[in-house]
Amino acid sequence: MIPLRDTVPSATFPVVNLAIIAANVLVFLYQLSLGPRFEAFLYTYGLVPRHFALTSLLTSMFLHGGWFHLLGNMLYLYIFGDNVEDRLGHVRYLVFYLLCGAAAGAAQAWTSPHSGLPMVGASGAIAGVSGAYFLFFPTSRVVTLVPIFFFLQVVEVPAVFFLAIWFVWQFVSGVAMLGEKSDVGGVAFWAHVGGFLTGMVLAPALRERAAPSGWI
Known about the structure:
The chain is mainly α. The chain has a single domain (2-206), classed as Rhomboid-like fold, CATH 1.20.1540.10. The protein has helices spanning 15-33, 38-45, 54-59, 67-88, 90-111, 123-136, 159-177, 189-206, and strands at residues 2-6, 141-148, 151-158. A three-stranded antiparallel sheet has the order 1-2-3. Strand 2 and strand 3 (151-158) form a beta hairpin. It is globular and about 45 Å long.
C-alpha cells in the first residue's frame, strides 16, 4: 500500500515539517555531489553500531542511501508530519522529531551492536511521527494506492488500520531478523519499532493544542 494523502487538513502552516523535508533533500543532493566519496560519507556520518557515537544519532537521520529511500521517507513525512506539528506546535514538534530519531537509532544499535554497516535515513524519526498520528487522529483516513490483481486502485483506509498493519509488519520482521548476521544490510526494522513506540510515549506529553471532539 502506498499512501497518497490523509483526510485531515492542517490548521497551521507546517513550517518545521517542510523545513525538515528540505533539509533532507539538500543533504542528499550534497551526498550526490560527492561522487566516489558518497559511501565514505555514509560511514563517517551514519550510525555504525560497532563504532557508536552520540553525534551520529543526529546526523544519520538526515542521510539517505538513494532516491527511492529519500522519496519514500519524505512522502510519509509530508503526509503525517503536518498534522502532528499542528497538534504539538512548531518548536515542540522539532524537539519531538529529533528525539524520536535518536531513540530509533539507539534501538537499532542496541539490537545489532556488532554491525559495521552505517544506518542512515529519516524513517526512525518518521516512525515516531506515525506513532503520534496514530494516537492523535484515530478517525482519520489515508488515501492509499493498493494493487489489486493487475490493477492499482485508490481507496481510503482508516489511518489506525494502515499504521497498525505497518507497525506489526516492522515488529514481526524485526523479530525474524534477530540472530541474523548484522552485516547483511537491509531495513532497520528495530529503528522503526523504537521510533513508533517513542512517538506514542512522547506525543501526549508534548501535546500543545486541545484536540477536537472525538480525537485524543
